[in-house]
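Study this one:
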Amino acid sequence: MKRDFISIDNFTPEELDQTVKLAAQLKKVRKTPLELRPLVGRSMAMIFEKPSLRTRVTFELAMVELGGHALEFQSVGIQINERESVPDVARNLERWVDVVIARVFKNKTVRMLAENMRIPVINALCNIEHPCQAVADILTVAELSKGRFPKVKLAYVGDGNNVCHSLLLICAALGLEMAVASPEGYEPLPGFVKRASELGKAGDGSITIMRDPVEAVKGADFIYTDVWASMGHEDESEKRSKNFQPYQVNADLVRHASPNFHVLHCLPAHRGEEITDEIIDGPHSKVFDQAENRLHAQKAIILKLLAPEIAERQIKSNNK
């Protein structure tokens, strides 16, 4: 039975933990040939309605380094839902390729692709979630936690957006403490908060939603932020800039964190808005390590969906 990765919630907590460990293992043996090129003859279609640097490069490299081939489709080319309906695009692509990744404006689009395909579909970003980013983020947190993972605190400061939603789910599922500070009206959606709370109760995760950014970062091991106006909200930039100014990650805010804190940002960053140059370029910043880990997270997700038996074997070999 085919599986998709549209939401963090598509994987169980155990599968999420395995995927992060698999990504770490693939990172260690990146240059090893043959066995870790199991997707020779397999192909991936990459649908982009939104521009991309990290998603485009890391997904294509992931597929190529696993032995497969990646094909990029820009929205101007296929004009999904304009020139051709989403179901018709899906029914064509499934005849040619083995997996599809989609970076789209609406969650509905990626779900329609998945519903009309017999091959796996991966959400490479939509307006509701960014699950692949979250896997890379947790890989980064695990690497930097020096044996303390998952007993760490991650503070997310800013817009309760798609990145925040996926982080809520994965942090709760894997037993992290996560505090979110957002201005009124910009909190994460209640459905994600509720689901994260359920996942946290089932494991050891802890989720707190608040207004005060200082309170959120108190004792935090990781401080995470994102742009204040994501793609699709550009017309709100001026209003958001005023509302979010107290949530800027700057020297005054980070002094409330743990002494050995790390700063994360999914990029691209609007320097001088949600984060200052002093912080993003400073010694606590791990944003480019985080960006690098997108490659390894993407590899792990692709393997889990296309070659689960190989993924399982790699995980077992790492545990020996």
About this structure: The chain has two domains: 8-130+294-309, 133-290. The longest helix spans residues 287-306.
